[in-house]
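Protein 1 of 2
SEQ + STRUCT:
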Amino acid sequence: MIDKQSVIESLRGVLDPEIGISIVDLNMVRDITITDDHVKVKIALTVAHCPLAKTLQSDVEKALRKSGQVHSVTVETTSMSKSELDELRTMLQNKTAKTGAEPRTNVGAGIERLGKREIRNIIAIVSGKGGVGKSFVTSMLACELRRQGYEVGVLDADLTGPSIAKVFGLTNHPSKSPAGAITPIETKTGIKVMSINLVLDDPGTPVIWRGPIVNSVIRQLYWEVDWGPLHYLLVDLPPGTSDAPLTVFQSLPLDGVIVVSSPQDLASLIVTKAVNMAKKMNTEIFGLIENMSFLECPGCGEKVHVFGPSQGEKLAEQLGILFLGSIPIDPMIARKSDEGRIEDYSSPAFQATADKLRLRTSEQVQQLMQGLPIAWAVEPAKS
């Protein structure tokens, strides 16, 4: 006989596709209505318009039909309120504490760690040197994640060389809400962007600031902005290991970093510094992307290695991190960036990379909930 308790037990094995915990334990199952052999279930999503809602609906239907007593299923979705999300966040934090999983801490006494609010994943895009296309990788990851239906934001933390606003074609100044919070500028596809160039009266004005001012501004661009609920906030960092990257590592509640490299030996050498910085700051490394790996001849399809043979996969193995993919050189990239139309550009390489990133962030949450220490994606190569 079908009753509410048997339905709940059947749903206990259904996991939230992003958090990896039972939807029953997450209090996502709300209303259950049973009429003969038909079951109607309402599921409260943690983020409105979750792109994996259809996956979750399918999993619920399969779990209920598996009992053999349910012949038809209707799954409706709603979204959790802010107070419910706060309760859920507290529950997950308590669960993590009880399992004994060690929270990540950053080096640097006296610097206050800012809160995370309604942002699920905060990921910094880093490199050891300039010129490897870090801002391009940041913007393209944002575009691909947005195409998949995620709520995405981009924080341009490269104060002295900001380019995010330009590639997205943004020129408007951000406004302030009645409460005093800064409202980020949205791109045409709905990506929320904050950059120092959007605040300056003249984007050509050089930012000539000493370290303490840089630190303060980066913190303000994150904390004083009303990002709202986001699946991903991508932070475009300046190259190197100076004040600005250090501020992000110490101040923002990062979930992890993505490292960008290029085929040259020099780039690989300096990128290693960025990886070692992340390790010293005890920050998870989601993987490495090699940009400008090759140029494909439009006539014959031959791959030309303009900057030498690709080394991304080998470098990732040596550093003990996941290789997220190789990005080819495409003249269209520069054209779309100059026109402020980067959202019109799409690449199968970035689609695959965004998929790997989504799976990696999901695995990290599951590791924490199971009481496991955050592990490297692969074992470092033995010397």
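Protein 2 of 2
SEQ + STRUCT:
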Amino acid sequence: MNDLLQKETKIVQVLRTIYDPEIPVNIYDLGLIYEIDVDEEDFVTIKMTLTAPNCPVADDLLNDVREVVGSVEGVRGVAVNLVFDPPWTRDMISEEALLELGLL
């Protein structure tokens, strides 16, 4: 496995440790992470959304993402871009998470 793929795999693993406090599913499987980009200088850019634009824990979730991704070995910096296009829908939840929530 090449270095970039290993780093992306580790980033996904740490993102799966962050949970939306209102839904017992991690933010990755919930479909809130739209894009992970690791550049050649090991700077990570995350494009993510929230289940609702007025999410009361938005700042906490963004800070958690910066913190856990920044803790991955070899990552030199993290930028988190919050987007609402496309808007999040239930269709973005992974099958595993749907099963966990009893929605499958």
